[in-house]
Amino acid sequence: MQATAATARESAMVGQPAPDFDMGSTKNLETLKENVKLSDYKGQWVVLLFYPLDFTFVCPTELTTFSDRYEDFQGIGAEIIGVSTDSVFSHRAWIQTPRDKGGVADLKYPLAADSTKQVASDYGVLIEDKGIALRGLFVIDPEGILRYKVIHDLNIGRSAEETLRVIQALQTGGLCQAEWKPGQETIKA
């Protein structure tokens, strides 16, 4: 697979306020007139899940995995927003496509349309020459501070299980050793 590079104008820095956003979304699948804004999620953990394109191969496996674990995320006070540079119309068509036909039917969280590509640029995942996002996963805390980010190439899907573990580790407020699991003690310093 050919190497890809994201823009260098990233403003999403761990420990700093997450870049704000206001994007069209599928929150109201019928009208497509309800945007997603970071300010709407104040007081909740947010998983911002960037992916390259609707109707591709790896993307539906990721989005449906996170959807299938959606109640687990809600159980720890977290919401999920999927983001690509596709339009809300493409997102709606993809959500209305059965999973066995490459769709993401019955997705339990909204997909946002970063049609200006500004949000992907702000989060450092935009591949400018292709106009699409790398796979980027960002965890934003209830105060709007970016606490975790992972960005990688297009051909590898992400883990809902690891994302849940990371949020739970962050929620302890403690020092969590490698391979820490919920319920384990944190490191005493």
Description:
- The protein is of the alpha+beta class and 189 residues long.
- The chain has one domain: 3-Layer(aba) Sandwich (Glutaredoxin), CATH 3.40.30.
- The protein is built from five helices and nine strands; from the N terminus they run E-E-E-H-H-E-H-E-H-E-E-E-E-H.
- The protein has a seven-stranded mixed sheet.
- A hairpin with a 4-residue loop joins strand 6 (126-127) and strand 7.
- The longest helix has 13 residues, at 160-172.
- It is globular.
- The termini are far apart.
- The model has no long low-confidence stretch (mean pLDDT 93).
Total of DSSP H or I helical runs spanning 4+ residues = 5
Alpha-carbon distance between the two ends: 44 Å
Shape: globular
Q: Would you tell me which CATH topology applies? A: Glutaredoxin
Helix % is 10-25%
Q: SS-based structural class?
A: alpha+beta
Query: Overall pLDDT, averaged?
Result: 93
The helix/strand series, from N terminus to C terminus, equals EEEHHEHEHEEEEH
Indicate how many domains the architecture comprises: 1
Question: How much beta, percentage-wise?
Answer: 15-25%
Question: What is the spatial order of strands in the main beta sheet?
Answer: 2-1-5-4-3-8-9
CATH H-level name... which superfamily? Glutaredoxin
The radius of gyration computed from the alpha-carbon positions, rounded to a whole number of angstroms, is 16 Å
Biggest beta sheet attributes: 7 strands, mixed
- Number of beta-strand segments: 9
At CATH level 2, the architecture is 3-Layer(aba) Sandwich
